[in-house]
Amino acid sequence: MKATSIGALMVGDVVTADRRTPLEDVVRGLRKHHVSGLPVLDEDDRVVGVVAERDLVLRPPGDGTAGAVMTAPAVTVRADALVPEAARIMAEHGVKRLPVVDEEDRLVGIVTRRELLQVFLSTDEDIRRQVRQKVFADTLSLDPRAVDVTVRDGVVTLTGRLERRSDIAVAVGMTSRVAGVAAVLDQLSYQVDDSRPRPAEEAALHGVTEDWIGGP
Fold it and tell me: What pTM was estimated for this model as a whole?
């Protein structure tokens, strides 16, 4: 089992409600986003409860608010928790999803059973194949063979040379989000440092044109 953190698996774009959200809006949000539950937040984005489909069964959609039917306190998990801990929490509380919170209990994402199962089912070869295709072929539009991707127990090592320095940050960030990845070791180099303006751009910033640099 790979020591994958929940922060690497969670979905960051979360459908939420507050205590005053009408149940009609809650139901609409569940249907629109094809989810079966959503966190309820206070004014500081702290998770105070969860509304699941089962909480709505005995309440007509137009009757009440999210705060009136939510299950509270919410069962949550920290972003730095590992998959086995999250799986244990889900099993103990009989829930299908966990809001992910930071040190101050503010919502930062959500994780479901589906994401956890993906980790259990992902082999090192699965991860390697996804990194090569999704990160380098699909996102960076590069030949997947341009970078050497090795995976051992969920730890991905990227070795090779990319054209731009900015591509390295994209490659490492996207790789860390692939299901099953425990860590990313960056051994990439670059040909062009596009984090700094080129001489002509620096000159333009100071009011000096290429014609001036080139002389009369």
Answer: 0.57
